[in-house]
Amino acid sequence: MPLWGDFAWSAAFISWVFVSAGVDAREFPPSATHAFYLDGLIADARSYPDTAAFMPHAPTEYAPRPGDLLCSDRSPRPLLHWTHRAADNGRARPMHCDIVVRTAPGVVEAVGGNVLDTVMLTRFPADSWGRVMPAPPGWPPFLVVMESRLGRLPPWTAAAPPATPGSLPAATSAAAPGAR
């Protein structure tokens, strides 16, 4: 029996990661249930497509990148497309999401919580375009890739290049050398 019994803590882990990274609750609504934060992310994407922090994509149509969420539907009757989630909006549904941490030819690597009662890196096969391959028979099907646009939209801008000694303004202090 797993340490936590039947308690599913994977959504709490994903929420903890985003909160710990300083992501505002307006951009990622933390929840102990994947379906609930996905509802918020999908609603924002529909209402504010130009500025939403996350955009939903069908796994067959988008190659995930680091920072994206790769989500599956673990229910007995899985949804066939992320747009069908609107009919369940506000109702819990057994789901699972992992955070994509690396992509390479033929593979998408993602970290998730409560995978065999631990935090685990999973390698998912990808096609030649980088899209995750369909889950094998008996596995929950992938429902959505939530493209993370965190840090790539206003009000955020690209970081300024690091200062170099030649780019710093000249010192204007009259303090003697070695004075504090």
From TrEMBL:
<feature type="region of interest" description="Disordered">
    <location>
        <begin position="156"/>
        <end position="180"/>
    </location>
</feature>
<dbReference type="InterPro" id="IPR019262">
    <property type="entry name" value="DUF2272"/>
</dbReference>
<feature type="domain" description="DUF2272">
    <location>
        <begin position="5"/>
        <end position="133"/>
    </location>
</feature>
<dbReference type="Pfam" id="PF10030">
    <property type="entry name" value="DUF2272"/>
</dbReference>
<protein>
    <submittedName>
        <fullName>DUF2272 domain-containing protein</fullName>
    </submittedName>
</protein>
